[in-house]
Amino acid sequence: MNWKPDWSKLVIYLVIPAVLTGGMAAMYFSGDPVAQRLVAPKLPPLNSHSWREFGLLENGQTLLLAVMVATLAAGAWRARAWRARAGFVLAALFALFILLEEIDYGKHWREYAACEESIEWFRPVPHGEWNPLEEKKAQGASFTVHQRHLTTEFKAGGMCC
After folding, report:
1. Tens digit of each residue's pLDDT (9 = 90 or more) over 15-37
2. What is the distance between the alpha carbons of residues 70 and 38, in angstroms, rounded to a whole number?
3. Which 8-state DSSP code applies to residue 142?
4. What is the mean pLDDT of the chain?
5. Residue 139 has pLDDT above 50, yes or no
6. Buried b (16+ CB within 10 A) or exposed e, 96-129
7. How far is residue 122's CA from residue 69's CA, in Å, rounded to a whole number?
8. How remote is the C-alpha of 151 from its chain's centroid?
């Protein structure tokens, strides 16, 4: 048995994600406010919990999830066997749920669209005022499942199966 690696798949599924993730981590921890704001911007009129939702990292995850939903939906549309179609539909619904959780059901985008103050993405901020690692508690109730601290319940549900 002579196994040969498929270099194109290795590049697509390992090298590109590692480079993108490593590059964004390097930008975020670089100390350069512009690079940090590209990855996780500081948008002062908005709630501090929403800031990072508009950066490259979060939007890259959102794009990947949206592509997964579309791909699974196309698989369901094209599947001939009902079991395959059902599998694609279930996987697409699960991916859609994860996508909606990731974007907080559009809450951050609604806040951004409704904000009446001017949002200056790259306005210089004094170094003492800018701390990208500081996360403040979000104001208001969140209605997403992953924000409700249900870890214990999810673990218990996984143990019973």
Report:
1. 998 999 899 989 988 988 788 88
2. 26
3. -
4. 78
5. no
6. beebeebbbeebbeebbeeeeeeeeeeeeeeeee
7. 33
8. 19
Q: What is the DSSP letter of 140?
A: S
CB within 8 A of 117, min separation 6: which ones?
45
Amino acid at site 153: E
Do the beta carbons of residue 39 and residue 24 sit within 8 Å? yes
- Name the CA dihedral angle for 81, 84, 86, 89, rounded to a multiple of 10 degrees: -120
Distance (Å) of CA 25 to CA 18, 30, 37, 57, 110: 10, 8, 12, 9, 27
Is residue 12 within 8 A of residue 64, CB to CB? The reply is no
Query: Is the Cβ–Cβ distance between 42 and 132 less than 8 Å?
Result: yes
Helices (H), 30-129: 33-39, 56-78, 82-102, 107-114
Q: Which whole-number Å values give the CA distances from 119 to 39, 43, 110, 112, 129, in the listed order?
A: 17, 6, 14, 9, 17
- Domain coordinates in residue numbering, the chain: 58-122
Give the whole-angstrom CA distance, residue 116 versus residue 108: 14
**Res. 91: pLDDT tops 70:** yes
